[in-house]
Amino acid sequence: MRRFLKNFRVSKMLLCGLAVLLASALSGCQAEPELPVVKLSVWGDERNQPLLEEALAEFKEEHRDEAIFEFTISMESELTCKETVLADPESAADIYTFADDQFEELWRAGALLEITDSAEEIIKGVGGSSSGAAQASMRGGKLYAYPETAGNGYFLYYDSSYFTEDDVKSLDRILEIAAENGKKFAMDFTSGWYIYSFFKGAGLDMYSDGNVNICNWNASDTTYTGVEVVEAMLAVAKHDGFLSCNDAKFVEGIRDGSIIAGVNGAWNAEYVLTALGEHYETAKLPEYTLAGDSVQMCSFTGYKLMGVNAYTDYPEWAMKLGRYLNREEMQLKRFQQIGECPANVNAAASEEVKKSKAVAALARQSQYGYTQNVEDPFWDGACLLGTTIAGGNCDDRDIQELLDKVTEMITAPSRLAEGKETSKTE
Q1: Which terminus in the chain has less CB density within 10 A, N or C?
Q2: Alpha carbon distance 223, 94 (integer Å)
Q3: The pTM is what?
Q4: Are 192 and 372 within 8 A, CB to CB?
Q5: Collapsed DSSP state (helix, strand, coil) of residue 98
Q6: What is the rounded CA–CA span in Å between residue 389 and residue 238?
Q7: Are residues 263 and 377 in the same domain?
Q8: For the stretch 157-172, what's the b/e string if a residue is b when 16 or more beta carbons lie within 10 angstroms of its beta carbon?
């Protein structure tokens, strides 16, 4: 009987042990829940594709224990992003990059999600809330986009085998040397972005008050009149050393040697450097002749921003990814690979960035630069004016009448200025 009880106790202990092991096994299975699937789409231009692919792979690996990620990368130009998003915001990418002049309409249309994840840290990283990058990304004290680059401005590129540092201080001298050598100075006169430089240099204004554009390009009672500015631009346009062309033609001309100087942005720095080699140089914009005086050309300064679609199904993860794609290390890597100037102040202060001639030119031009703050009607009006000037005013239009018409177009109400929904997160 005693042996039976002893054996019984042993069996009972074994059974208890098995029960504990079984419970532990079952408990272990339950402690490993199935990971959620997160599907996010990202838009970027062609040059950013390799960098995006690399960053998304790194992000996926870093968060592999938190979710299963399915990323889709598609090409979308930063110049046309706004139109694509506004055509169908709900079908647009979860994350997209755009130029800062598109911010206002995207924000008013409710297409931008308020960035609440580490917003203060992001703002601090670009120099604080009073910095240009932060101001371009905020409304009402709230952050609605990640400042991605600070190089969305323009300056002068030139071939030092033709020009000295003194030569490039004067647009007249640049045109003279280009013509003497059967070459061209290039600038896109059909774009309001560039022709703004002549009017602002003359002291004439064009900016948004938050609803409509304020513009006095047709002024006749100012120190320099609008007509005098157009006459000065026509003299440039008709010069044998001048060529009005877009970005693609500018790069092509630099490569084949037909263009030896031109106004363009930092995004083409690598192309120009490769083409010009040891003769690659940059400078602030030159002075131009206006009513017998030498006047410094001004410029727009701008930023590229990354926004999170307000209609995303995964706002928390989209914000985490947006922050990851725009962290200091990523901005420095973007500069290294495609020459984009960082918006992050620490990245911009690195020795590598400071050695860039494009960045140096942007810094020199910055004292004559103004934040791009315009409503959409500006572009069509300015394009009409610039195209007419680039063509030499071949129809012999009355300049004052042309300026009156263009100013009327520029100051017309934006299609989103009144009666439109503001941000969804307001």
Answers
A1: N
A2: 49
A3: 0.74
A4: no
A5: strand
A6: 9
A7: yes
A8: bbbeebbeeebbbebb
